[in-house]
Design a protein that fits this description.
10 strands; binds iron/sulfur cluster; binds S-adenosylmethionine; single chain; about 350 residues; binds 6-(5-methyl-2-OXO-imidazolidin-4-yl)-hexanoic acid; alpha/beta
Length: about 350
């Protein structure tokens, strides 16, 4: 891979100018960056599980798990280790290399950390990469999770700093930056992105990407979610975004954070296959696979398998991951460790 200068001084005007490029020029430029730094036909597969669902005290306007909105999501306490392990095994068998665990908390309490650590330890022992998204972290939490074998922590900036107050009132943008700092200091990899289609302007989409690219380190994973408009949430009737604007956002994220893996995240269920294909061309190199995200539906695995076959995509097996237990998402066959299409090292 060629050496590249990773910039952390992007101006809003520079990013807005990328958004304003003619669509074809933008995609060509983004794909050129993508192919220079990544296998353009490989897609990293993560699977999500909600390990603690609903009843959240926060007021994030997009979120079906906020207690104050009446969305029909039943609250459920933290799952037991065995329940999570069973789901993680199934995700691995279906082709996932990373297992992401989400909890509907403002943040974990000190007493929650040993329980989550036990879950992380058990999932890690299956040979999967681990990711957790538990909200704002307190003192010592990130180190404890790292010690249990956590690889990634997901904490999104969600939207531009100046639009944040329109979406969330129970915490500040700067609180998020503090948690991101704790993640980096503990040596965890950062998964950090945002949501597109919440009524923000293009300028504000540029602002989100500027804030992400100008973090002290580019997040290793950048999930770009399209809002899933859930009945009962304040954003239920948010104006529908032009799909090409979503593709542009993926392309600009690709250009400003060239080495990061950009994830085409929530919202694929509402997306045409052709739009997804454009996102992969524009630089998306990861998806969430599995029938559910946290509480909402995701495309079913058979559909994704067919899409991968139609687009000649194969799952990315992370460096150093050599186990054979997972399925090859492309063919549906059990991985044969080196000679099948999934790319696992022999
Ligand atoms: N409670 C923790 C937190 O807020 O950090 C972790 C779970 S929270 C559900 C994780 C992320 O899911 C949010 O930051 C947001 O980006 C995304 N998300 C939640 N609801 C969504 C929706 N309806 N559409 C798209 N993304 C959503
Ligand atoms: C992320 O950026 N998107 C995921 C994951 N990180 C935790 C969550 C999407 C949630 C969509 C709404 C739901 O299913 O509840
Ligand atoms: Fe709670 Fe997280 Fe949902 Fe906000 S996004 S309401 S913090 S679960």
């Amino acid at each position: 891979m060629p050496e590249v200068l990773l910039r952390h001084d992007w101006t809003r005007a520079e990013i807005a100018a990328l958004f304003a490029l003619p669509f074809n020029d933008l995609l060509y430029r983004a794909h050129t960056v993508h192919a220079a730094h990544h296998d353009a036909n490989a897609v990293q597969i993560s699977t999500l599980l909600s390990i603690k669902t609903g009843g959240c005290p926060e007021d994030c306007a997009y979120c079906p798990q906020a207690q104050r909105y009446h969305t029909g999501v039943a609250a459920q306490k933290l799952l037991e280790v065995d329940e999570v392990v069973a789901q993680a095994k199934a995700a691995k068998a279906a082709g996932a290399s990373r297992f992401c665990m989400g909890a509907a908390w403002r943040g974990p309490k000190d007493r929650d950390i040993p329980k989550v650590a036990a879950i992380v330890r058990a999932v890690k022992a299956l040979g999967l990469e681990t990711c957790a998204t538990l909200g704002l972290l307190g003192e010592g939490h990130a180190q404890a999770l790292k010690g249990a074998g956590l690889d990634y922590y997901n904490h999104n900036l969600d939207t531009a700093p100046e639009y944040y107050g329109e979406v969330i009132h129970t915490r500040e943008f700067d609180d998020r930056l503090d948690t991101l700092e704790q993640i980096r200091e503990a040596g965890l990899k950062t998964c950090c992105g945002g949501i597109i289609g919440m009524g923000e302007t293009r300028e504000q989409r540029a602002g989100l990407l500027q804030a992400l690219a100008n973090l002290p380190e580019h997040p290793q994973s950048v999930p770009i979610n399209q809002l899933v408009p859930v009945p009962g949430t304040p954003l239920e009737h948010a104006e529908k975004l032009d799909p090409f604007e979503f593709v542009r956002t993926i392309a600009v994220a690709r250009i400003v954070m060239p080495k990061s893996i950009v994830r085409l995240s929530a919202g694929r269920r509402q997306m045409d296959d052709a739009v997804q294909a454009l996102c992969f061309f524009a630089g998306a190199g990861s998806i969430f696979a599995g029938d559910k995200l946290l509480t909402t539906d995701n495309p079913d695995v058979a559909h994704d398998r067919a899409l991968f076959a139609r687009l000649d995509l194969h799952p990315l097996i992370p460096a150093g991951m050599t186990d054979t237990g997972h399925a090859d998402l492309y063919t549906g066959e059990t991985c044969c460790n080196g000679s099948c299409s999934c790319g696992a090292a022999a």
